[in-house]
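Quick start: what a row looks like.
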Amino acid sequence: MRAHTRSRPKLVVSADGHGVVNHAGSRLLADLADATTLTSAFSDALHRLRPRGTGHDPGRVAVELTVMLADGGEAIRDLAVLRDQHEVFGPVASTPTAWRVLAGIDTAALNALRAARARAREVAWLQAGETGRTMPPSHAGGRELPGLVLDIDATLVTCHSEKEQAAATYKRGFGYHPMPCFPDNTGEALAGILRPGNTTKATARRLLRAPRPRADARAYVLTLRTRRSRLAYGSAPTNDWLYLAAS
């Protein structure tokens, strides 16, 4: 683990102060990334992109891009919203710097980022447990389901211009047809598979053949939603049962 210097300004919340800023809530996301070790984990995963140890930390740039997207940004240039508020976010990478970081992320780096994200999620869940906030249960059919419920459901994302892998969809639109995965217990995004818009619409059979995200919990239920049914795939810890319930 490498040492990282925190350079975001210290904030003071006051009802009678001066210097009101916009997007102050986005700073909380950046602080959350620091508190759950996500920023340092990203820095370790992308350390080779900073061979001389100077300039912007690639891991922090990745966090800034994540915060920008969560704040409603749609393109790299939208980092300007964070960059223009130096008193809140500190030094933020320029658009060319962010572009170089993204361009330098290959398959190995992407896998390292995924592993870093999984470790940070584990830290966040452990921190929640230490404060008495346990994982909320998931319910289906009027009963409580044990373990972690992973909800996988393909969705359509519209694009208004030609982009990589964008294509005509089965609903006569244009864009992507990704397959995200969310834990039904918390609703947070765990993983996702980016697919072209012309990918055949999801069925339970195809979803079962799709790569399943790794679950941290030993026992989980994987629900695969389709148009007519919900197929639940259980493991505790071995995959020993399947059931089909009408939606």
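That is the whole record. The helical segments are 24-35, 38-45, 58-70, 80-83, 86-89, 95-103, 107-130, 204-209. The longest strand covers residues 229-235.
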